[in-house]
Amino acid sequence: MNPTLNQYLSPEILTQAIFVLAVLVTLGGALLAVLHREIVHNIFGLATCVCGVAGLFIFLNSEFLAVMAILIYVGAISVAIVYAVMLSVPLYRKKEPRRLSKLALSFLSSALAFTSLVLIIIRTPWEPSGVTGADWSIRRLGILLFTRYELLFELISLVLLVAIVGAIITAAVVNKKEPGPGSGEGQA
Amino acid sequence: MIQLKTFLVIGALLFCIGLFGLLQRRSLIAMLISVELMLNAVGINFLAFNRFLAPDPAVGQIMVLFVMGIAAAETAIALSIILSLFRRQRSINIEEAAELKG
Q: Do B86 and A87 lie within an 8 Å CB cutoff?
């Protein structure tokens, strides 16, 4: 702890800098995930974006969710998408040119949505509720998950089970009348 | 600077980037990635309200946990649909999957 260093980098400034960094990582990753034409780069963009989002979660006092976000999105979802890319898209395939009208229309509509959302955010007088609990611990999360939210917890496990079994059935059961994986017409 | 409206605007921006990708891309996998971005934006919004406004700080976190669980289930289903569509059509371009069109 050098005093001169402390002078230049006060904790407040450091916090702000890390916050700005997290925001930039989030938005940069999102732009990479959306704008780049190579699908693998999109997946890297998604992973980067989720890392930034995890940083924002830490700023929102939710360290457990930051860990879970990285674990689920980077560790599971991105890897699953990479597998799907390996099994489906030939990367050497020629890319069709983008249609400018579609690009402009989708940009216009999302910009419109963004403007209206920002107007709503700015004009609403957000008021915190009178009482605020101070218990941010993971212990409390676990207790609530097994008491008040027990039904939801069981329900989501059931949904995940059904989704996994359904995914296996959808992907693995091949209808014999369909053209098989090796006999499609457009191989290139 | 670290206050409620900042987080809400970041969430809105992320959501709209995802919306743009969802409308503009033609590959089904890229559209799935855009949907994941939008779900993340929703998570940021939940946690921002949870941090600054809510009476009980655990409820928003549990909500976001459920959103993540649903996102995982949705990804599994979507990827298997993409695989079986690719097996059928040799392509995952959304504009070529128009068999049900009259």
A: yes
